[in-house]
Amino acid sequence: MKTIVLDKIASVTKSVALKREVRLSATIPCEEGIVIAVRVLTDKSVYNQIELPSGRMAQVKRGDIVAGCLGHRHALFGYSGRIPERLAPGDVVHLLNLGGVLGICDSVNPDLGKPFECEVLGAVLSFPVLGERIGRPARIGGDRLPEKPALDLKGIPVVAIVGSCMNCGKTAAACAMVREFAHQGLRIDGLKATGVSLRRDILALEDAGARATAIFTDLGVVSTTAANSAQATRMLLSRLAAQNADAAHRPDLIVLELGDGLLGAYGVDAILADPDLRAAFTAVVLAANDPVAAWGGIELLRRDYGIEPVAVTGPATDNAVGVRLIEDRMGVPAANARTAPEALAAMVLAHLGLAPRPLAAAGAESDSVLEDAR
Fold first, then answer.
1. Which of 116, 199, 344, 359 has the fewest CB atoms within 10 Å, counting from its CB?
2. What is the 8-class DSSP label of residue 146?
3. Contact status, residue 152 vs residue 280, Cβ threshold 8 Å
4. pLDDT at position 371, please?
């Protein structure tokens, strides 16, 4: 056991609440969520930052000692990597994402260059028993997820945003809707259910006006898969619904972003295949990069899951040409989240049976603004 001082602590380790000074073990369990310390061996001019537990982004430099978590990543427009079968101090791993996920990179995106190479220093130890000097490898999260957690939304509507792929405008759409709903006097909570650990998107939801937020990392999941995404979504939705269950504080809506795309490795398909979750999604909005992606996304939702999206947004709607193509050829309303957020929010509210309510008029009535819809 040796002691080191960390230069940077990655946001994926937030639940462990690490201090700058940590103790390390040379014995490293190669399991998802195990916290390890590494020394950065290379410099990069792009994709060269890490997200801290505060949400701030910090530049990574050669020589930095960083704490992150073992995990996998299978990103369409990023790095792909896996957890190694064995690790010892002196081995080399790669920084796979901005949140601090560490593993062996097996596929590189040419726009991002090679990932940071990092020398393994050891497993970060935690000391869970007060007064004992016996350390255990720190791990984010706790027990394994139940096979089928109960889903109890207490009647709260859920607006789910799905995408054709990564970087198709899902977070922009979620933030635009949260902002517009909040301007209507509604109480909004936000959730990101799939992807690889990075708090940036839920922090953006908070900036847009969401009161409470959650992400799968809160449950100890570094990266979602078809094996855990539905369970994590059930638990996080139920927690958001329960934490402000009294009528005076309960959310009027939960906005749920499904990271990655309809065809991807992060388990969006498993969530949509869960009949209870499908039934809980009061409205589904599709974000797409172009009209063909919009067509494919709509067809997948209709054919495989029996879901009719209430609106299409994303770069496919960046001008009137895309909007007309989607509405005329696919019969689904379309609106751009960046240039027409009011229209997008109005489409969703109309589907929920709600009329826009000016903030000035919402004051005393905001506690019951959705009662008519329920």
1. 359
2. P
3. no
4. 41
> pTM value?
0.90
Ranges of the chain whose pLDDT falls below 70: 130-132, 142, 354-374
Give the burial string for 60-75 (b: 16+ CB within 10 Å, else e).
Answer: beeebbbbbbbbbbbb
Q: For domain 158-368, which CATH number applies: 3.40.50.300, 3.30.70.360, 3.20.20.70, 3.40.630.30?
A: 3.40.50.300
**Phi and psi, residue 253, nearest 5°:** -150, 150
Phi/psi class of residue 51: alpha, beta or left (left: φ > 0; alpha: ψ in -120 to 50)?
beta
10 Å CB burial of residue 134 (0-12, 13-18, 19+) is: exposed
Q: Supply the pLDDT for residue 356.
A: 54
Nearest to 189 by CA among 204, 203, 205: 205
Average pLDDT score over the chain: 92
| H-helix segments, 100-250 | 170-183, 200-208, 229-243
State the pLDDT at residue 41: 98
Q: What is the DSSP string of 2-13?
A: EEEE-SEE-GGG
Task: Give SS3 for 153.
Answer: coil
User: At which residue do the structure tokens 């996920």 appear?
Assistant: 101
Contact 38, 68 (CB under 8 A): yes
> What are the C-alpha distances in Å from 202 to residues 189, 210, 211, 212?
10, 9, 11, 9
Q: What is the residue extent of each domain of the chain?
A: 2-137, 158-368
Q: Which residues pair with 161 in a beta bridge?
A: 257, 285
| DSSP sequence for 216-266 | GGGGT-SB--TTTHHHHHHHHHHHHHHHT-STTT--SEEEEEE-S-SSSSS
CB 106 within 8 A of CB 80: yes
Structure tokens at 4: 């080191």
d(CA 139, CA 130): 18
